[in-house]
Structure to design on (573 residues):
């Protein structure tokens, strides 16, 4: 009896500690949001939830930042445009090629499989400088294409989709073919709906990876009008770092889409992360 | 019936081949071509504008004598010296904690994983402010302990602070990996150990750690990869300083290519960094990896 009580007290202590730690882990986010709605002069002088609150920082970011030649609204659009293009492209190409890899036998399939596995181990940073040279030769520096074209297909995406598609019974596909379904119909109306979670995982991780990508756009984009938010925010903070409030407001804008995505699709994020555990 | 299918199959094989070909073509342009350039660049002298001139191993000797480059490798070791103990202890604690929680397990895991999903530029800026000399962390230190810590401005502290930030980011993910390992350990082993009155610490090092060997190795592989590939955090938080104490290989490569305008040397650096990280991971696995079997 005594022992039982002791254990339950112990597990209560652990539970409470874990909740406190979880809140500690959220602290940077909370601080960022609070700092973004305080006047810069008060950020370091007031405790977390006190002080006067304004939306001045956000206004500064969108209005006078234009005068400082930092078009934040445009960069927000750039980020969304680039990220959504890359995500859509990766999902669609991965679905089609993944379907081919999983369900169609064609010459060279095994070699292609090996190549994808090999490619996944080669660190992409190694190719960054020569890829920059290619983009330069193509005359694509300071264009959306520089940030979209090299990321349009993903070996990882194909690998993930083909692994999942292998589990879909061939009977479904044969039935669809008897109904004269085209390849497009098979992929869009059969494979994708049946493997929703893997498609979501590929889409979400591609989205976060592209949104968060910093080094590559930093290299290929120098025109402020073409910069994605991450790079514009970095250059803004380098030059006008004293405007802590606006910098934090920019950080909120940069972090928010990923946070929202994570909260809404937490189930798929958890699934995707535990996929790599096997 | 069969004939229809075999006709379809032949047609299908063509479609499959065409799809595969599109991926091959994509990789010829954006993967193989850069790969060839990587080799050419690393063997030539070039400044982005003129024609590359073949210089053989000259780049190699220059890079080998570049103190900044070597300094960045020393910084990788320093980073790992801070990062691995901290992140292992934290994520093990996280995994153990998660095991003992009844309700709200998912909620807590999500709080930690939110750090993993966040954008590198955003949280680097946030931590720069939190760690700044008048930031909330130092205010807290002054109020409670009466002294402030130069988190990012002192050469001896800056790397430690960066490794704290990276720990903040990865604990949730690493913890989840270790947690999955812990869940796979049969409870009977612990029961048997308890019957033998094995002390808790012995249980940890003789049962738990060997049983989650493969998960620990996975975490270490990730940690070493991060150490060699880290760019955003030092670039945003310290710019490699103070006194080059946080100058990591990726930063040196970036500077060499785009500030010093020596893409050839930078390409060679990229190769050396990739090989070094591969060798370190192989060595680590060779020393620490064990085949654990349940008999």
């Amino acid at each position: 009896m005594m022992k039982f009580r002791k254990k339950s007290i112990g597990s209560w202590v652990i539970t409470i500690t874990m909740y406190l730690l979880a809140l500690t882990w959220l602290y940077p986010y909370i601080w960022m949001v609070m700092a973004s709605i305080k006047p810069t002069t008060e950020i370091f002088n007031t405790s977390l939830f006190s002080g006067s609150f304004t939306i001045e920082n956000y206004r500064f970011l969108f209005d006078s930042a234009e005068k400082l030649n930092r078009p934040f609204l445009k960069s927000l659009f750039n980020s969304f445009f680039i990220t959504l293009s890359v995500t859509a492209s990766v999902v669609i190409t991965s679905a089609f090629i993944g379907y081919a890899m999983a369900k169609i036998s064609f010459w060279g399939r095994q070699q292609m499989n090996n190549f994808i596995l090999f490619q996944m181990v080669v660190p992409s940073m190694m190719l960054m400088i020569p890829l920059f040279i290619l983009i330069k030769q193509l005359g694509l520096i300071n264009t959306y294409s520089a940030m979209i074209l090299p990321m349009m297909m993903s070996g990882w995406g194909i690998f993930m989709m083909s692994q999942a598609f292998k589990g879909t019974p061939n009977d479904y596909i044969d039935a669809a073919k008897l109904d004269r379904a085209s390849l497009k119909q098979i992929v869009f109306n059969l494979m994708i709906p049946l493997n929703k979670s893997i498609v979501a995982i590929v889409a979400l991780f591609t989205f976060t990876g592209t949104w968060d990508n910093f080094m590559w756009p930093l290299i290929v984009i120098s025109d402020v009008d073409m910069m994605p938010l991450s790079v514009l925010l970095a250059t803004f903070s380098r030059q006008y770092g004293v405007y802590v409030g606006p910098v934090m407001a920019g950080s909120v804008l940069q972090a928010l889409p990923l946070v929202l995505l994570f909260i809404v699709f937490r189930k798929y994020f958890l699934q995707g992360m535990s996929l790599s555990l096997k | 019936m069969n004939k229809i299918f075999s006709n379809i199959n032949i047609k299908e094989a063509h479609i499959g081949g065409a799809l595969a070909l599109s991926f091959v073509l994509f990789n010829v342009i954006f993967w193989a071509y850069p790969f060839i350039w990587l080799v050419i660049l690393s063997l030539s002298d070039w400044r982005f504008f003129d024609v590359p001139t073949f210089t053989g191993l000259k780049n190699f000797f220059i890079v080998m004598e570049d103190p900044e480059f070597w300094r960045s490798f020393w910084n990788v070791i320093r980073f790992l010296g801070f990062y691995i103990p901290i992140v292992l202890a934290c994520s093990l604690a996280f995994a153990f904690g998660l095991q003992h929680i009844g309700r709200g397990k998912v909620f807590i895991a999500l709080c930690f994983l939110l750090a993993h999903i966040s954008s590198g530029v955003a949280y680097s800026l946030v931590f720069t402010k939190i760690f700044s000399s008048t930031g909330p962390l130092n205010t807290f230190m002054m109020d409670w302990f009466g002294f402030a810590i130069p988190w990012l401005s002192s050469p001896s502290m800056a790397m430690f602070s960066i490794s704290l930030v990276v720990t903040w980011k990865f604990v949730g993910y690493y913890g989840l990996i270790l947690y999955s390992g812990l869940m796979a350990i049969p409870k009977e082993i612990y029961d048997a150990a308890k019957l033998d009155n094995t002390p808790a610490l012995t249980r940890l090092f003789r049962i738990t750690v060997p049983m989650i060997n493969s998960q620990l190795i996975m975490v270490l592989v990730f940690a070493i990869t991060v150490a060699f590939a880290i760019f955003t955090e030092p670039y945003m938080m310290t710019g490699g300083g103070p006194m080059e104490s946080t100058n990591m290989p990726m930063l040196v490569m970036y500077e060499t290519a785009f500030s010093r305008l020596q893409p050839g040397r930078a390409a060679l650096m990229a190769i050396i960094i990739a090989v070094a990280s591969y060798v370190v991971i192989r060595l680590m696995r060779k020393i620490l990896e064990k085949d654990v079997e349940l008999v």
